[in-house]
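Backbones bend. Our protein:
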Amino acid sequence: MDLQILTYIIVGLTFAIYIGIAIWSRARSTGDFYVAGKGVNPIANGMATAADWMSAASFISMAGLIAFKGYDASVYLMGWTGGYVLLAMLLAPYLRKYGKFTVPEFIGDRYYSKTARIVAVICLIVASLTYVIGQMKGIGVAFSRFLDTPYDVGLYIGMGIVFFYAVLGGMKGITYTQIAQYVVLIFAYTVPAIFISLHLTGDALPQTGLGGTLTGTDSFLLDKLDKILVDLGFNPYTAQKGGTLNIFLLTLSLMIGTAGLPHVITRFFTVPRVKDARSSAGWALVFIAILYTTAPAVGAMAFYNLAKTVQPGPVNAPDGALLYEQRPQWFKNWETTGLLAWRDKNGDGRIQYAPGKAFAGKPKVKTDASGKPVIGDNGAPVYLNPPAESKNELYVDRDIMVLANPEIANLPNWVIALVVAGGLAAALSTAAGLLLAIAAAISHDMLKGIFAPGISEKTELLASRFAMGGAVLLAGYFGLNPPGFAAQVVALAFGLAASSLFPAIMMGIFNKRINRTGAILGMLSGLTITLIYIFWYKGWFFLPGTNMAPNSPDHWFLGISPEAFGAVGAAVNFAVAWFVSRATAEPPEHIQHLVEHIRVPQAAGETGNKL
């Protein structure tokens, strides 16, 4: 069956399942809308949490990062999974024992301040909107290639699906939809990985195939990949290339950012008891590990297949590189999206893959009046932006590696269609959770909690749905104008959560001495310094008279990348909150008792703590 028809069928079936679940489990109260009535089984919640957290960055972009960065990308594996250990040990059970709906509500009550609650809402919205941009880009990439729609049209379709089942079902609908999405995405991720591992190494388990030998040779896959990259002029795949300080801070930023993500924390409010919160975190780790132990193999094998495709012969041989006119069909397919591109710089008609950028930024394909790419005399699309000075002639968007991998490996069409459905499931599941967190912050924390505390539950539920609709539109706008590839944007979101919300939650649970002034100034200082660093070193603004190169490691402070700076922002947050609290009055006695109640286990005989 034709790939496009098969993709429409499989994606259409999954969308029908999501919509059907939303109708079946639609929210009828604010408790259903915010926390699914606090009745979700911990195993089911662990699966829903895994889908909520394993976003387009995990499914689509992380393997692309591993493919192109090699060893250095291991920080994403360690940071994102390590964060769940922190969440399970330090936050989830205590916040569940507290028993409210949202993170800003906890911060407002713990720091006895509406101002603290407003600041927490601002931090939540900034981090969540940044995070949702990556999901929107993943949706657009998948639609633009496999469903033969323009990027923006695919994005609008994804927005519509999320809007329907998230607005109708709230947390209750999202929870059961995410369980279905987890099944889809994990099946879609592991099946092609097994196929490719069998083909390259003869090993059915990608995790062991990564360290195995290539079929019919005595060469280990990673050794061969190192040699190919060195021959092409790159650093070895398994070598550390980034600074140790930056790797450490990026890992830490991702860890505490994970533990501070509002939409993930909210998932632990949906279970019946405190012990179920710990159990949910454990099950989530199990479900997450299936994908995260597979991702290194997917990245390495995808890059090996790509390199062998464009460089089939010896590097120094005149005919070692692939002739452009002999490029395979998958190459032609992805060229039409603008996410894969070639520009002949030396006139030999071959695809030269070397260190350096092929284009000054993402290549923009010239289109005719009907929107179709304009093809030049050499058979390649015509690009609007000129090539960069490097010798590299190949542009590959990192976000296409997982989606293109089955095509590169010549897998059956049903496998390719399944991967598309999985990528969309990953993006939609996380986008729904993020949008719900934003809607709850606006309707429950701002409207009900501060500006109109007397509104009815029905009015609050209606306001939540309007807020969700506005958040979908805003997320769609940023999805049309993304500031980077999916995993990069998501890493920035984790840094923002790490620098703003995590310290306030952590100190709110474990330090009775932190008061409202310290917490407010800590959150503002951590968020502000991190935002300034990100905007400056991403090249999104300059001071007059400066000529700083955007996002250049040569200009980073102590070699710290913008994605890693969240750990520094968190340290500033902790320090400001601690010193200010020591210099000002202690929290009221009832607040200190609240901290004791949250933190100290209940006595024997009180284990059925349904709060």
Q: What stands out?
A: Residues 151-201 form the longest helix (51 residues). The CA atoms of residues 65 and 584 lie 46 Å apart.
